[in-house]
Amino acid sequence: MVDYGIKKWSNDSFIIKDGEVKVNFGSKPSLLEITKKIRQTGIRGPILLRFPHLIKKQIDTLYKEFQRATKSFDYSGKFSAVFPLKVNQFPNFVASLVDIAKEYNYGLEAGSKAELVIAMAYNNKNAPITVNGFKDRAMINLSFIAAKMGYNITVTIEGLNELEEILEAIKEFGEPVPNIGLRIRLHSSGIGIWAKSGGINSKFGLTSTELLEAVELLKKNGVLDRFKMIHFHIGSQISEIGPVKKALREAGNIYAELRKMGAKNLSIINLGGGLAVEYSQHKNLQTKNYTISEFTNDVVFLLKEISKQKGVNEPDIFTESGRFVAANHAILIAPVIELFSQEYSEKNLKLKKENPPLIQELYELYKSINKNSAIEYLHDSLDHMESLLTLFDLGYIDLQDRSNTEILVHLIIKKSIELLKESNYQELKRVQDRVQERYLLNFSLFQSLPDFWGLNQRFPVMPLNNLDKNPTRSASLWDITCDSDGEISFDSSYPLYLHDVDLTKEEYFLAFFLVGAYQEILGMKHNLFTHPTEVTVEFNENGYNLKNIVESQNILDILYDLDYDLNDIQSRLKSNIADSNLINKEEKERIFELLTLLLNENNYLKVSLKKE
Ligand SMILES: *Cc1c(COP(=O)(O)O)cnc(C)c1O
Fold first, then answer.
1. How much is the pTM?
2. Which atom of ligand 1 is nearest to the CA of 197?
3. What is the pLDDT of residues 207-253, one digit of tens each?
4. Is the CB of residue 181 below 6 angstroms from any atom belonging to ligand 1?
5. Are 599 and 554 in contact (CB under 8 A)?
6. Which domains does the chain have, with CATH numbers?
7. Strand residues in 71-140 grouped as ranges (E)
8. N or C, which terminus of the chain has less Cβ within 10 Å?
9. Cα three-residue angle 240-246-250, rounded to 5 degrees
10. CA atoms within 13 A on the CB side of 271
11. Is the distance from the beta carbon of residue 451 to the nearest atom of ligand 1 less than 6 Å?
């Protein structure tokens, strides 16, 4: 049976049972059951499911692993961490996160003023806040206000000018002064598509010369005691452990040198983020080469070693991993609304009395195909189709002939799939790569999987049910935008096989997993498809609750966000109806009511099971 690599990427959070994919927690509901329950309320289109218990699982793992490692190496530094808000700033995610964060004293990281405002409003009082990114005076002022609120806040300096702004702010605001962190520019860098944040040419951090200057400046102004943390971040989704170790050695030595220079309150090394997530669902592909245990062991061991060598205190360890914490909490459910080959049914076949010989031959292949001849006939029919399409281009056959060709070839494909699916599944898959089924999904790839569009990042995908049957169609996935980039085409390096379903008889949904990090905020409103309807699934003793249901924006709200004047739009629509001389008065009223209803619906397709 095909399991879509669930054991590899799901980390036991999801399982396949009774032909359905189920949440491996609490009452173990199937995703199909949850989806149907949500659709019962009339909601159509894509749905983003959030699972807070999976956020907790990740935070718990992070803390437990670091605690285990520090204990086993008898390491005296403490561990703490924050969540970088840029990975997911959506309110229902943040609400669950800070609720779970309380018991761990897990904080928030902000990279812009707006993110800092989120942290200042929602962070748990004793948990840390870190501020990264380029800062103006207003952002520094916000940090001082946060310190006055009582937050344990650290401002990480990216350049000397920011430090000068802080010194100015100290004069204005006085105590309490936020902790000061220095972002160091490492010689080493990460690898992979997200590894642009480290390295000597990176956008961020102070060079060695600037570090020395910064320490002098702090000393001169009598605030060296505020300098608590050094920070680096070598990139996201670090696929190999090697670069992490290299960066740690460099950072550990910088830490020790700075301590020796008199930075006596410097006690924290902030490793930034970068912990990778396993996105691959295919057997021989692996996106990361280490486990969280290996990662934590290496960090603790290396820092212990360097501290001993250099005769300094073992530093506290601080991380800002975001992808690792958020990715697995969200799943995108996309309804399949069409299989393109479904129109090719026998009842549409309109053979003539006299058919072109190749079409006659196709018909005979179709009638006589059996298990033994299936592969051969399938190849023959594909060749015949090529020839017949050429004949059409040259004007030798007509449109009816062309339609008959397409129908017959698809009927042969379907019949051979039926004949081979038990006996020769591997060969069938091989042949199939030439004849794919196209699945039209009610979602926007630009909105919901922007990293696929921008970086070719693949996400695990699987159907919600039929998992007790072998999928027989090699699948290309199309979204509903009018853009040819809105497609995940079949790729034999990452083959996806789906079921041949009759959408007039059953619904079929695909789920994209690990979409909880970065995808929501990077999502684009191409064709004005906005954030999908979202629902939080929260488990309790009796099962689960669906809460925080936020339906995808309605058409008027979408236009309002683009700064359209809604009154103007509505009065124009109204007068266009009133002025039309194509409709009579009663009809005008009815049309206007209908239009008003439509303006209040979301922009995704509103389709249900198609009855024949
Ligand atoms: C983006 C970023 C992170 C989070 O990185 P992940 O790969 O999501 O863990 C952490 N710290 C800083 C400074 C960042 O810019």
1. 0.94
2. 15
3. 999 999 999 999 999 999 999 999 999 889 998 999 999 999 999 99
4. no
5. yes
6. 52-327 (3.20.20.10), 555-599 (1.10.287)
7. 79-84, 107-110, 128-131
8. C
9. 150
10. 32
11. no
